[in-house]
Amino acid sequence: MKTLNITFALTLAFTGVLQAKSLERMRAQAENINIDTSSLAKKTASVPRASARPVSADRQQPPAAPEVKASTIPLIAAIVQFFRLLFGANGDIEIANPSTEIPEYEGELEDDTEEESYDEGQTYEPLDESTLPAEPFQQTQQFGLLQQPQAQPQTQQPSFQSGQPSSSAGGPAVPEDLKRKALDYFHANSGKFANKRYIGIVDFAAHSSRDRFWILDLQSGSAHAIHVAHGTGSDPDNDGYATRFSNVPNSRASSLGFYLTGALYTGKHGRSMRLHGLSSTNSNALSRAVVLHDSDYVREGSYRAGRSFGCLAVANSEIANVLASLRGGALIYAGISNSDL
Question: For residue 198, what are the β-bridge partners?
Answer without folding.
Answer: 217
